[in-house]
Amino acid sequence: MSRPNQARLDLAALRHNADLVRELAPNANMMAVVKANAYGHGAVTLARELQSRADAMAVACLEEALELRESGISAPILLLEGVFEPDELGIAAQQGIWVTVDNAVQLEWLEQARLPAPVQCWLKVDTGMHRLGAEASQVAGFFQRLVDCPNGRGTPVLSTHFASADEVDRDTTTRQLALFERLTGDFGALRSAANSPGVLAWPASHYDWVRPGYMLWGNSPFGTVPQANAARLQPVMTLCSAVISVRDVAAGECVGYGGSWCAGRPSRIATVTIGYGDGYPRTATNGTPVLVNGQRAPLAGRVSMDMITVDVTDLDNVRIGDPVILWGRGLPVAEVAEPAGTIGYELLTRMPARTPRVVVTP
Ligand SMILES: *Cc1c(COP(=O)(O)O)cnc(C)c1O
Asked: Would you name the residues annotated as active-site residues?
């Protein structure tokens, strides 16, 4: 028998989540953001499944785009940060890859390039994130230069990105939208602003292209804060393992490295063969929920490289071989991320190659 760890992928859930994007933003095109190996799930597997539903894909760099092209993905693919070197533009042009232009240097590279074909450009506008994008005073000039540039194909799409769309009580997003409107309203160009929280909670941000990533994988960008639309998502990844040892420990005995959890009563400890080497966060604290036989039990003791220990005193009949779910179906990843001091985005994205991704669509 081999190690039972699997990141199980439910492609029916993926289709459901993509359909929810369509339902919430019926008038927008959908760009599925599959950067970083589709947030750790496996970009090729998920992009193939999304091809019939998404109008385009988006990635962080040319290498990620070419991986998709080589596996037969024919949809347009946008480079969200544009190119890092002018030489990339020729490959993008050849391969039907779209480029973001977000500063004067990228614009000059485009103007000076000799390309086999024009490329579709997205002009990114900085409305408050202050990470990428043309400044307010540059937008009209950059837009006109792109329109005039023979290397640009058609009218550039105008885009921006939200800093805090996952915090629905703050007015940051409203202010970003107002500025986006003021800076881009007069050009008659297609526009794009919404990431997952934008799709779910900010209908005014939908415009012509929505750009969901995280919600497609069925997790709420609002973390553990309830949100009505996010409650309809279905997790694509369920991280599974199994119990490999069960023992009773006396009150006062401590468990694991550093003895950071000590039994306050006679306790039963189940050891599960998954650890930080398999993508489970070492920073998860005592009490983090784990599903053993479908029932919640608290993490007890420090996460090891290959194992965790769980307090199953209150569960009946836990045995070696019993199934364990670390997150996914029945346990939102945010409930693990929060006590680990991070967000579900990070837990999914940094899932190591050691944990096999297995398509298991119920
Ligand atoms: C990553 C990214 C997205 C997707 O964000 P989610 O919160 O995962 O939906 C959208 N737009 C840009 C520019 C991004 O970098």
From this structure: 35, 257
